Amino acid sequence: MSHWEETLIGTSRCFLQVKSKIPLLSRSKSTVLISGETGTGKELFARAIHYSGERKGKPFVPVNCAALPDHLIENELFGHSKGAFTGALIEKHGLFHEADGGTLFFDEINSLNMVAQSKLLRVLQDQEFRPLGSTKSRAVDVKIVAATNADLRYLVDARQFREDLFYRLNVLPVVLPPLRARREDIPELASQFVKRSAEEFGKGGIQLSSGAITKMMNYAWPGNVRELEGVIHRAVAMAMGETLEASDLDVPDHEPTGSIAMYVPDGLEEILIEQGGFQETKTKMIDEFERAYLTKLLSTHQGNISKAARAARKERRAFQRLLHKHGLDRRTFSAAEQPVETLAC
Question: What is the largest CA-CA distance in the chain?
Fold first, then answer.
């Protein structure tokens, strides 16, 4: 069994269906677009595609698009020549150069701004790039694997993602199932995480009780496999005995009652009965939901962007873009003021 097969744990039907596509995806030179909720293992899947193919001896270079500052994106991706700008004392290679012959993995590609999307599209079309300050383009042989936890089709409709880039990326699409859709994999995943954490903390022989397994099976896991791993890691770290009981797991004893239900927007019936097609109504519904959800988060955390972004499981920069999109200013949600909406500065 290869290393990548050992990292992708699960025997559920929906998971095996996705896993079985890896050999085919690794043989193709076409772009792969991996969609799935946060914590479903998109980077693990991307690594499996790389290391099971002919490029496995070449670099696998991950890029967290949400963490790239807007003014540095082009420099990070394409590099620069000596003297390209003030302070550019030496030539610097970008990520495309580093990944030449291998795989470049764009995580959270939905976070790229429109300018960066345009430049990425050009590389995908021409298979070459031009470093900042250079007059010559450089050919590059890179397999592109992109991942998103957002609906790119919706972002295209909302004019927040280039339609031509979407079609360039969506050549070989893959959708990873959330953990709640593959609950039968939870015991095996949990056992593996217990074993790894026990080795890390020097606590051999720790087992899961039947009550702990039942509790995990009854929980919705909104953070998916990543959340499960974190819960197990904490439980093993704090364990006083050799058996993890249900009480040792820091998750609710029942299904969450509510995050989505709490944020259903007012005027739902009015939106549904308005004249318009399915796509138009869907767009309005999503916009109303996003605005209500963001308003509730900012109110709860008194305008603290960092806390609100963590609660939403979004990168801070991506979260701020959502606020700007809906005209919300965090300052109006501070403890000193009432939570009213205003245009963002």
Answer: 66
User: What CATH number was assigned to the domain covering residues 3-175?
Assistant: 3.40.50.300
Q: Quick one: tokens of 249?
A: 């797991």
Helices (H), the chain: 3-7, 13-19, 22-27, 42-51, 73-78, 95-98, 114-126, 152-157, 163-169, 186-201, 210-217, 224-238, 259-262, 268-273, 278-300, 305-312, 316-325
User: CA 130 to CA 75: how far, in whole Å?
Assistant: 10
Q: What is the pLDDT of residues 111-149, one digit of tens each?
A: 999 988 998 998 999 888 777 766 677 888 999 999 999
The reported pTM is: 0.71
CA dist 220 and 269 (Å) reads 28
Please state, in angstroms and rounded to a whole number, the distance separating the CA atoms of residues 174 and 163.
18
Class of domain 180-248: mainly alpha
Measured CA to CA, the distance from residue 75 to residue 179 in angstroms comes to 37
pLDDT digit string (tens) for 288-298?
778 778 887 88
